[in-house]
TrEMBL record:
The chain crosses the membrane at residues 510-531. This is Tyrosine-protein kinase ephrin type A/B receptor-like domain-containing protein. InterPro entries: Growth_fac_rcpt_cys_sf (IPR009030). It comes from Zooxanthella nutricula. Keywords: Membrane, Transmembrane, Transmembrane helix. CDD domains: TNFRSF.
Length: 536
């Protein structure tokens, strides 16, 4: 996930990947009182992203994630070439990990790369779907011309907008190789055009023979980098399955020029941040404290990624676990920090938990908070053994106990909760009931209200038991019985008053009836025969 997705996720937004949409409620679905699902985001890039988030969420400061410090190593982004090509070029006296090695007026760096025509166009986005021409493309093109004076790299659309020029439907070509495009070095980026303004300005200013395209998907971006000898937009730390990317060094980072949109210097190295949801500090203070101490050095991270079996999520987990097993002292320091005395203070909708499950908010063994499940509700402790539920008639104007936060309690008889994080219980509807519970602490994992059994009913909400149907009436188990009904004519209730049965004689007497009927039929036939014979 991207850094921005991580920020929105730890803010409790239900669809954090839709952060680009303007409407917070219908896009990323961010609300002032979220049900948190994601609590931690690691390796968050850029103070600017956090600043933009703060600005957007000024009216909801309670959801803004907490920054618990940097993770211990820096993040870098830029243009990368692969180690095999660097080594081959160095043997020939050319440095491909330095921008001057790409000066097409002096060197022939294209000899170490594939031709851009070898790249499968089906795995590339059309120019109209990239930063060259999407919203903001006009600013990109204007900024490029202001730095390079290269009007050949831009064009004017029918609507009068200035956008990046496109070759072959997918590529932007640098000025130094437009006369011999077969010698342009393919550069692959991702997203809608990560780093495209930087690449265009650098290519023009330093006479780099580049052909720039954007991969159709993140998977295609990785695939093309692994399968071809290209330059790739990359960032570190990040593993690559079969190659070792090496960063191409440009002039040192120049903030003053970058603030003026002159992007010829190296990108700024950024200390990567650790973010947590606001609820984590009170809900799981041991985890929060450990995260604050959690740190990995740049050398350790580089050592894990270089020459390791880290190719996908599962294999990278194995690499991380192997590193942890070899760093017992480091891990012990994290644990010692988290084992310090903690103060569990849960929010409404949550309750204190220990290793044994839900517990009292004043339990010294409480280690964090969890959302109250259906069948339970969140409440505050009160003085003198009383308790208080949010939204109850006694809540307003009463003062909660000075220590201890919210805890999860079982709904009382006749009531239940039907969702996660309930702060009060509702009466069971008519036709349903809930009996008494054995404990006040939350132990259930589902709705307590049950349908009345056959032959029983409840006509009002909040029932703790269901009443037996009066004689001669029934209630069926297939429906929530709020009353009993009489059977239709020729039907009678069964023994449980759960259904109506036909008045027909029990099937066990069928053979006897048939015998009697047959006897009378034969008797009638006999006397008919006798009378007829006498008459003759």
């Amino acid at each position: 996930a991207s850094s921005t997705t991580g920020i929105y996720a730890t803010a409790g937004c239900e669809n954090p990947e839709a952060f680009i949409e303007n409407d917070l409620a219908t896009g990323p679905r961010c609300f002032a009182d979220p049900d948190y699902v994601h609590h931690v985001a690691l390796e968050v890039w850029g103070k600017g992203k956090l600043a933009a988030f703060h600005e957007r969420f000024r009216s909801m400061p309670q959801v803004i994630p907490l920054n618990v410090g940097d993770i211990g190593y820096q993040g870098n982004e830029g243009l990368y070439v692969f180690q095999t090509q660097v080594d081959m070029a160095f043997a020939g006296g050319l440095m491909l990990d330095f921008y001057r090695g790409y000066n097409f007026s002096i060197h022939a760096p294209d000899a170490y790369f594939e031709k851009y025509s070898a790249i499968d166009a089906a795995k590339l986005k059309p120019c109209n779907e990239t930063a060259l021409r999407l919203d903001g493309g006009e600013n990109l093109a204007a900024g490029y011309v202001a730095v390079s004076s290269d009007w050949g790299g831009v064009e004017t659309t029918a609507s009068g907008s200035l956008v990046g020029r496109c070759w072959g439907g997918h590529w932007w070509l640098a000025p130094s190789c437009r006369g011999s495009p077969e010698r342009c070095i393919p550069v692959i980026t991702g997203g809608h055009g990560w780093y495209v303004p930087d690449i265009m300005q650098k290519a023009a200013a330093f006479q780099m023979p580049l052909a720039l395209a954007t991969a159709r998907s993140t998977e295609h971006w990785r695939e093309l980098g692994n399968a071809h000898d290209v330059i790739i937009y990359w960032w570190e730390p990040q593993p690559m399955a079969s190659k070792r990317p090496v960063r191409i060094m440009f002039p040192p980072y120049d903030k003053l020029k970058r603030d003026r949109n002159i992007l010829l210097s190296q990108s700024e190295s950024i200390l990567l941040s650790k973010l947590t949801a606001q609820s984590l500090a009170g809900g799981a203070p041991m985890v929060y404290t450990m995260l604050a101490q959690f740190s990995i050095s740049s050398d350790d991270m580089k050592g894990m990624l270089e020459g390791s079996a880290c190719r996908d999520q599962d294999s990278c987990v194995d690499v991380a676990c192997a590193w942890l097993r070899g760093k017992e002292a480091v891990v012990a320091a994290w644990r010692n920090a988290s084992n310090a005395s903690v103060d569990v203070s849960c929010r409404p909708g949550q309750g204190a938990v220990s290793s044994a499950g839900f517990t009292s908010s004043r339990d010294a063994n409480a280690i964090g908070c969890a959302i109250c499940p259906p069948g339970c509700f969140s409440q505050l402790p009160r003085f003198q053994g009383a308790s208080l539920a949010l939204g109850s008639s006694d809540f307003q104007g009463r003062e909660a106990a000075p220590s201890g936060g919210w805890f999860c309690s079982q709904c009382p008889a006749g009531k239940s909760s039907h969702r996660l994080g309930a702060s009060q219980c509702e009466k069971c509807p008519a036709g349903r009931f809930s009996g008494s519970t054995l404990t006040s602490l939350c132990t259930t994992r589902g709705d307590l209200c049950k349908d009345c059994p056959g032959g029983h009913f409840s006509s009002v909400g909040g029932s703790t038991v269901c009443d037996r149907c009066p004689a001669g009436k029934v209630s069926e188990m297939s429906e929530r019985s709020t009353s009993c009904k009489e059977c239709a004519p020729w039907y009678v209730p069964d023994a449980e008053a759960a259904e109506c049965l036909s008045r027909h004689v029990h099937p066990g007497n069928y053979s006897l009836i048939m015998q009697v009927l047959l006897f009378w039929m034969l008797l009638v036939a006999f006397w008919y025969y006798v009378i007829t014979a006498v008459a003759l």
